[in-house]
């Protein structure tokens, strides 16, 4: 399991000149991905019944040419000690005046403005 760099607006994986995904540095947000190894019961991915849904959750050429990895959809940040902190969920967005707005982003803003520790926001 690793964090790889993503474009936070489009959530597309950022790739280096070699075509492989770029790993995140401490403090840098990234999508959590897990290498798929079909021969290993702990790292295999049996997938979904819907072939299109499968393709959306699998990235190719992630760490080495020809490999595959499962895209969790979770954006996390790792600190210098290796602890992971949840930042966002790629599917938890809604459209407002042509812009993608993250529910987590709205929660953070409301929490600061209202001086409240816990705020929950969901798109309707």
UniProtKB/TrEMBL annotation:
GO CC annotations on file: endoplasmic reticulum membrane; plasma membrane
Gene3D superfamilies registered for this protein in UniProt: N-terminal domain of ligase-like
SUPFAM superfamilies (alphabetical): Acetyl-CoA synthetase-like
InterPro entries: ANL_N_sf
Entry GO MF terms: long-chain fatty acid transmembrane transporter activity; oleoyl-CoA ligase activity
One BP term from GO: medium-chain fatty acid transport
Sequence similarity: Belongs to the ATP-dependent AMP-binding enzyme family.
PANTHER family: LONG-CHAIN FATTY ACID TRANSPORT PROTEIN (PTHR43107), LONG-CHAIN FATTY ACID TRANSPORT PROTEIN 4 (PTHR43107:SF11)
Name of the protein in its database record: Uncharacterized protein
Protein source organism: Micrurus corallinus (Brazilian coral snake)
Classification lineage: Eukaryota, Metazoa, Chordata, Craniata, Vertebrata
